[in-house]
Amino acid sequence: VQLQASGGGLVQAGGSLRLSCAVSVRSTFSRYSMAWFRQAPGKEREFVAAIAGSGDSTHYTDSVKGRFIISRDNGKNMMYLQMDSLQPEDTGVYYCAARSNGLPVSVSTRYGYWGQGTQVTVSS
């Protein structure tokens, strides 16, 4: 399984970005729960959002609820994170992650596959 995250950049507070994660798998993409994590400078990696393989269940960390939307397109092997009303505290490297045949949990160690990360910087 290979994951490629993209879409990061520099944006002013209140702005929007859309992250994408392209996934290469030999099996059916819908077998994989997917998630986004982020890591700010000097901090540990933290959970942002997760989505079930079918796309019918999503979970968010409290700080992004109402601002971020996670989605996926199983026909294209793609996952997305629409980020609106961005704040400086959203700054960090955003990673996409995948786990096969499991629930979309918030624990990073449950995910066996990771992308390389994409930088998001929000200026005040």
The best one-word shape is globular
**How would you classify the helix and strand content by structural class?**
mainly beta
Count of discrete alpha- or pi-helical segments spanning 4 or more residues: 0
The proportion of residues in beta strands is: over 45%
Mean pLDDT: 96
pLDDT < 50 stretches: none
Question: What is the string of helix and strand elements?
Answer: EEEEEEEEEEE
Largest sheet, in brief, is: 7 strands, mixed
- How much helix is in the residues? under 10%
State Rg: 13 Å
For the termini, the CA-CA separation is 37 Å
Count the E strands. Answer: 11
Structure description:
With 124 residues, the protein is mainly β. It is 0% helix and 51% strand. The protein has no helices and eleven strands. It has strands at 2-6, 9-12, 17-24, 32-39, 46-51, 58-60, 68-73, 78-83, 92-100, 113-114, 118-123. Strands 2, 4, 5, 6, 9, 10 and 11 form a seven-stranded mixed beta sheet that branches. It has a four-stranded antiparallel beta sheet with strand order 1-3-8-7, with no helix packed on it. A hairpin with a 4-residue loop joins strand 7 and strand 8 (78-83). The protein is globular. The model has no long low-confidence stretch (mean pLDDT 96).
Observed structural traits:
single chain; 124 residues; mainly beta; 4-stranded antiparallel sheet; 0% helix; 51% strand; globular
